[in-house]
């Protein structure tokens, strides 16, 4: 890596794994006669391989460093890699089916169980059941029951991204059918397959039964094209999603936020820039929400959490609404999003089906269940909109506002964030942050300006 780099590892409980790595990062930031002016803290997403996570950090940071050489020659940068025990969540390019033959579904499910289920006993039982899913209703019952054992407990307070009740306690055949139907809809680009008038005659607030309307029943998998083995893989994806969602929040709150506090106490404190990919976007957003120190910028690359998390117009408000209303954010929030990201789009499409809340496009901006990496921040007054351009594009990122960058041209899938177009947007987000005196409350120097016209296309 071109810039100085220090890794910091965190446990499943969210705490830093030890003091030695944290101390080394602090020494690296303040070392020499010319201490760092900026610290770039990067969190990876679904990944249980440290080497691959650090390749992401290196490739992204090196592209930023190359662009910064002429645009910010007087800054000294340090990169801190936030390594946390995530689990592979989705199959990325294959997440919506295409490319896997029917003969390949069972091996794909077995591989997914091995990669994503951390409890050896649970993994063993799920593997034993996998081969019988197509023929045996009992196997489907037991498979789903074991997945439910892996779900996190329900939160005590409001959650804008809850586990769908049907996933926790719905009829097994209904759950499998809904998961498979959502995948078919996303894979074909179709609207939810309910016929006109499906909701006619229902009381206000009661959604239509998309399951029955689309040709499936609660007693059998009758929709043409549904494969219970493939549906089981999507249910495993979704179970892993909710497990990683909770863990990412703990790492951000209990681990990264205290690290930010220690960095902010260094003499002549550096600007702190938070960057997260996938579930790592939730790690750094949770840290920004929990910290009391200035956050110079927050860049969320294909974030795997709710698109309503910053909303002030929903009830309850978004989980991370406080990032925009509290004093700690002094610079911009930049969000990349695209429906090319089938991993985020499908996870929320399945959740929406299970919650019976899809009213138009599954997982899209109007769906109560929708992902940040698919749609950007929605129902958020502070959100502006632009297009992710190439590495010469110019943006006007405003402090204490969100810019949703539509990334269709430069992000082909969930993991495609290692390119110079993304690096350019990240660098401009960091350079847009105002300088804040450590003795002055951030809110006094960084107020919310009127929305600025947005750029994003190359000149």
Automatic annotation (TrEMBL):
Signal peptide: none annotated. Residues 149-169, 185-226, 438-459 are annotated as: Disordered. Gene3D superfamilies: alpha/beta hydrolase. Residues 450-459 have a biased composition (Pro residues). This is Alpha/beta hydrolase. It comes from Geodermatophilus normandii.
């Amino acid at each position: 890596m071109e810039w100085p780099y220090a890794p910091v590892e965190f446990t499943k409980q969210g705490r830093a794994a030890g003091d030695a790595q944290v101390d080394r990062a602090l020494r690296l930031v303040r070392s020499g006669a010319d201490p760092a002016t900026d610290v770039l803290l990067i969190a990876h997403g679904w990944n249980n391989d440290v080497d691959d996570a650090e390749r992401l950090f290196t490739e992204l940071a090196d592209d930023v460093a190359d662009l910064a050489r002429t645009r910010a020659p007087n800054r000294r940068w340090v990169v801190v890699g936030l390594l946390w025990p995530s689990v592979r969540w989705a199959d990325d390019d294959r997440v919506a089916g295409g490319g896997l033959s029917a003969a390949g579904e069972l091996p794909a499910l077995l591989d997914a169980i091995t990669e994503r289920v951390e409890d050896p006993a649970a993994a063993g039982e799920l593997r034993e059941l996998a081969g019988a899913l197509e023929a045996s209703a009992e196997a489907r019952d037991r498979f789903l029951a074991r997945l439910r054992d892996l779900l996190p407990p329900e939160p005590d307070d409001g959650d804008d991204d809850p586990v769908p009740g049907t996933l926790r306690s719905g009829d097994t055949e209904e759950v499998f059918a809904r998961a498979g139907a959502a995948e078919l809809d996303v894979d074909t680009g179709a609207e939810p397959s309910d016929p006109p008038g499906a909701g006619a005659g229902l009381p206000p607030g009661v959604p239509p039964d998309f399951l029955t309307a689309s040709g499936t029943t609660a007693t059998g998998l009758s929709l043409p094209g549904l494969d219970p083995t493939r549906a089981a893989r999507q249910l495993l994806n979704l179970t892993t999603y909710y497990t990683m969602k909770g863990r990412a929040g703990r790492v951000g709150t209990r681990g990264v936020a205290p690290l930010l506090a220690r960095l902010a106490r260094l003499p002549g404190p550096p600007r702190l820039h938070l960057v997260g990919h996938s579930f790592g976007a939730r790690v750094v957003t949770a840290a920004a929400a929990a910290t009391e120190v200035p956050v110079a910028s927050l860049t969320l690359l294909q974030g795997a959490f709710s698109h309503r998390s910053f909303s002030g117009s929903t009830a309850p408000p978004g989980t991370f609404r406080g990032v925009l209303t509290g004093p700690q954010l002094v610079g911009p929030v930049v969000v990349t999003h695209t429906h090319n990201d089938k991993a985020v789009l499908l996870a929320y499409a399945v959740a929406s089906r299970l919650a019976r809340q899809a009213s138009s496009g599954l997982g899209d901006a109007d769906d109560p269940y929708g992902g940040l990496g698919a749609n950007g921040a929605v129902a958020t007054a502070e959100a502006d909109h632009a297009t992710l351009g190439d590495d010469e594009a110019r943006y006007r990122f405003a402090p204490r506002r969100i810019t949703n960058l539509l990334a269709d041209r430069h992000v082909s899938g969930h993991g495609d964030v290692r390119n110079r177009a993304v690096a350019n947007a990240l660098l401009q987000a960091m350079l847009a942050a105002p300088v804040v005196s450590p003795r002055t409350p951030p809110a006094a120097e960084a107020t919310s300006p009127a929305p600025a016209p947005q750029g994003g296309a190359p000149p």
